[in-house]
Amino acid sequence: MKIKNIEPKPYEKSVLPSIIFEVEISHVKYQEAIIGINGWLETDDGKILSSIDEHIYEKTKANEIGARGSSFDLRFKEEIYKTRIIAFIRKQSLDYIEKRRIADKKGDVRLN
Fold this sequence. Notes:
By secondary structure, the protein is mostly beta strands. The chain has one domain. It contains one helix and five strands. The protein has one helix at residues 91-103, and strands at 2-10, 18-28, 38-42, 48-55, 78-88. Strands 1-2-5-4-3 form a five-stranded antiparallel sheet, with helices on one face. Strand 3 (38-42) and strand 4 (48-55) form a beta hairpin. The protein is elongated, with a radius of gyration of 18 Å.
């Protein structure tokens, strides 16, 4: 599996300040299965800003696997799994982001 693309955008359906990340992950069908995506949004200095949770983009997930040396061998191919990950940002996190932005010469904040 490999993350191919991440596109961050403001999540405007939320009353709370939020970021939605449109994510594309390459995987080999029948060899790898994506069960779910969640984790933490961090700054480059390791401070956690928010938890992140997957919002299903496609109706079906890539959740099938097959055995090698079987009739599935011909079906093993790379596919792209598209999903959305949402991070709700609290005031304390916004304040920390602003502090990091002021400290950076370009005014950038790097997220992991």
